Amino acid sequence: MFFTRRLLSLPFSSSISKKLAHYSQFHPSSLNVQQYLDFGKTGTPKSSYLFLKNELLVRLANIMQEISLLPPNLLKMTSARLVSGWL
């Protein structure tokens, strides 16, 4: 849970920190070409929405977790502070 403690210490609001900690526990889905082709034939807008709704949260949480694990010198850079400020 080191990652969660480190993530919660970032300057995000507490509600966002809790959601990031929750979704960062999941791994992003990996899809192969066949799955894309199958979805193109049988997929619906609703199933696409439901998949992306969760997948985007998982990927964003994992990205923010990776940013929080940067060395302190990199976290002080303008670009890292800018991205952290988006949330």
Automatic annotation (TrEMBL):
This enzyme's EC code(s): 2.7.11.-
SUPFAM superfamilies in UniProt: alpha-ketoacid dehydrogenase kinase, N-terminal domain
Superkingdom per UniProt: Eukaryota
Keyword Transit peptide tagged: no
Q: Which reaction does it catalyse?
A: L-seryl-[pyruvate dehydrogenase E1 alpha subunit] + ATP = O-phospho-L-seryl-[pyruvate dehydrogenase E1 alpha subunit] + ADP + H(+)
Give any single GO term for biological process: regulation of glucose metabolic process
An annotated Gene Ontology molecular function: ATP binding
Family statement: Belongs to the PDK/BCKDK protein kinase family.
Looking up PANTHER family in the UniProt record yields:
[PYRUVATE DEHYDROGENASE (ACETYL-TRANSFERRING)] KINASE, MITOCHONDRIAL, PYRUVATE DEHYDROGENASE KINASE
What is this protein identified as? Protein-serine/threonine kinase
